[in-house]
Structures are given as C-alpha cells and as structure tokens.
Amino acid sequence: MALALLMGPITQHEQTVELYRQAAEQAGHDVAALPISINTHGYVGSTSQEARDTMYPYFAKGMMDNNHQRGRGMRLPRPAFDAQATPNAGLLVGSTQEVIDKLLTYHELYGLNRALIQTGFGGMPQKEHLATIERLGTEVAPVVRREASSKGTSAA
Length: 156
Prior knowledge:
Blueprint: E1 2-4, H1 14-26, E2 37-45, H2 48-65, H3 78-84, E3 92-95, H4 96-110, E4 114-118, H5 126-150
Parallel strand pairs: 1-2, 2-3, 2-4
C-alpha cells in the first residue's frame, strides 16, 4: 500500500492502514509481510530553519502551479507551511534529526518499510535538490534503517 500525505496530521492514515490489514488478514495474507510506503514532500537542511526557509518558496509555488482544480492554485501562507513541518504533521522538512524522527514515527504508526520523498517540487534549484538528496542518502537513511532493524522490522 502506498500512502500519500501532502498535508495534514501524521496520523491521517491510521484507519486506512488498519482496514488494509484487516482485509488482508481475512483474505489469508500474512499481515506482517504487507509492504507499506509513505509518499510525501520533503527537504533535509543543515538546520530546521534553513530547511524550512529553503523549501517554502518552492513548495508554495508548486502548490499554486499544480492545483488548478482550486481555480488559480492553492495559496499556502508561511504559517500553514510551518505547521505542516511540525512533528505531528505530514511534510518531511527539517534538520537531519527531525526527518529521522518523523520517518521513525511513520514507521511506528504504519509499519512503514518505504518512503518516497518528493524533493524538487515547485522548481527547487538543482543545488538545493542535490544537497537534500545527499543528506537523505548519507545521514537520514542509514540511521532510519538501523533504528528500524533494531526494532525487528525493516525500513528503507
């Protein structure tokens, strides 16, 4: 199952995952073997503030450019973006440790074993895009994998 969480509370999909597991169990599937991924937007910065300051203008532009069903797009004020960057909300934006903590929270909530993180939304320049990819690969993923496996589960 691939969960998408653009914005909203981090717990938004708890009922959906529970129903998925119940249905799989009733159909005779091994619930522990069910793959679950989260798909969300994110940015890993050198600090929390740097991450938010870097991601916000591009993310806000992307929301305006890609939400035509709302007329001229979706305006996203900075306070609304910052609220979505908190530990209890959907965006994976912050320092390395904040992103690690949030991914581990997703893992604990949903049994997550994959995360797809959209990092270039809204036309983020290549330099920033590559910086977050490097942090994800060298600083975030190794810790998340190690922590998840120490709890007897796996995540990538």
